[in-house]
Automatic annotation (TrEMBL):
Classification lineage: Bacteria, Bacillati, Actinomycetota, Actinomycetes, Kitasatosporales
Organism annotation: Streptomyces exfoliatus (Streptomyces hydrogenans)
A Pfam cross-reference name: NAD_binding_9
Identification of the protein by name: FAD/NAD(P)-binding protein
Family matches, as InterPro entries: FAD/NAD-bd_sf (IPR036188), HpyO/CreE_NAD-binding (IPR038732), L-asp_N-monooxygenase_NS-form (IPR052189)
Superkingdom, natural source: Bacteria
Residue span(s) of domain FAD-dependent urate hydroxylase HpyO/Asp monooxygenase CreE-like FAD/NAD(P)-binding: 20-184
Region Disordered, residue ranges: 560-579
Amino acid sequence: MSGHPTAVPSDAAPTIPSIVIVGAGPRGTGVLERLAANLPELYGDRPLDLHLVDPHPPGPGRIWRTGQSPLLWMNSRAEDVTMFTDETVVLDGPVRPGPTLAEWSGIEGRTFPTRPEQGAYLRWVYERARSSLPASVTVHEHRTTALRVGGPREGRQRVWLRDAAGGRRPAPLLADLVVLTVGHVDAEPDAEQRALAGFAARHGLVHLPPDFTADTDLTALPAGEPVIVRGFGLAFVDLMALLTEGRGGRYEGEGGALVYVPSGREPVLHVGSRRGVPYHAKLGYVLDGERPPLPRFFGPEQTDALLAPTGPVDFRRDVWPLVDKELGWAHYHRLFTAHPERTALPWSDFEKAYAKAPPRGAELAAVVAAAVPDPADRLDLDALDHPLDGLRFGSAEALQQGLRDYIHDDLTRRHDPAHSADAAVFDALLSVYGQLLRLGTRLGSDGWWHGFFSYLASGPPGPRLHQLLALSRAGVVRFLGPRVTVEADEERGLFRAASPAVPGEWTEARALVEARLPDPTLEHTGSPLLRALHEGGARATAAGLLVVDPVDGRILEHDGRPHPRRFALGPHTTARAGGAFTRPRTGGIAFRQNDVTARAALTFLRDRACRSTVPLSA
């Protein structure tokens, strides 16, 4: 059943318990699947209304909608994407296994599917979850935007919706519980972006602020003209695809011999960022043999110790040394067990010395140096985070060749099992992410960690970097270097960009593109619902994330109390998971979060006879 209720029930009228899920993309679909799985145990065959509110199709939602360009790929292999639980997930609810994207679609498991292909899978998952609900549950789909949530802590909630004409529906949805799974949302420009937009307007330039590349109008970027691009992550990869193949160009050959044949309609992309390099390529092999036993130096025991005292936890001071040692442990465990010929000590001796040494100090560095002769086999996270620091190039052309060499070397390493310690570090990153979630609101992170995690663990498919190299050789992409600064030159009416890697070299352009996603902050969110929650007193972290109870995802109010009837999960909250989708048999942090929230919601409804006690004027 789909539609909108047309009237608010009277106070005396019996009402069917209801849950409103705002956001019907992958996270909302995951919550729906967990509700369906837990209903028989916790709620039985009692009547229940489920309302799903999303202007985009349920299942794929906005980001994975099937109507977008097939030039846009997933950032995961088909065999590494699942929406279903397995025995590795720590659940109180039942495990409901299901196919991976590869198994469902027939796509070869090691390939990177298109986003429309993933959208079709998500739509099927949604339909399967919905069809598994008992007849006592009625699902209502509302293809619109939720504007505001109101209602007292101890009473039914009211969810105001935007109608088709863009106005406000006079009769809001009544909900005993509200679950916010809105996913990635737009953002209002911050002060810097407003200033750049004003500069562009005064001089007739093009300025594209942070946005989802698939939704950005790129027609304003003219053929053959220079465009300054700030950002070298996955948003840039999408931009690169849409402005090259998307404008009629094509590739010939494969791998290192790939050649780009321009259409003549491409702009020239001058790209730079803080690091000046793209994210590390996806690993091109499967880790075999013994995996590092994780967690070891940053697990529940260390997290409990950090949570014991009151007050905030400083990421750099309190957490980063433990993370560094944990990632190093995974790296060296793999090196010693899979590549012992490159080590100089028995593993048992190294393990004892490594465990004894304090993290990130001279003693630990000496232990590693004595056991691992080749510096190239040692893990240096600082060097990974700043790969071009201190490098200077004599000319812009020398920088182009230097960056091409760097990307080529990265591709070679990420596809060579001789460097399988990198894959062990990937596993450790996932383990670390789970512990960081436990720290919740106590963690005073500046957002650096999330970017570092994505840089190491969530880079583009290898074929994308081969395309980047081909575009560089064809002159369609030009590298700016690290620590890029962008200026708005009022006198000349142009954007200018420079990097210390090529002293005195400036690039000028009439267009600037911010190739990154909007920051998920409540202060600048484009979601009227999240903005209203923030203005209404919902707590936010220093980084602008909605604070939720790590136990079950309930939204924390300004006084620190969890709201009994409001939940939230996803990238706009402190319950954000480490990646867009879960790999099979990896424990699935998001699956556990969805399960806990679904069980808390069903238990609440089961234990309380919910009737509307909210006056019509509330």
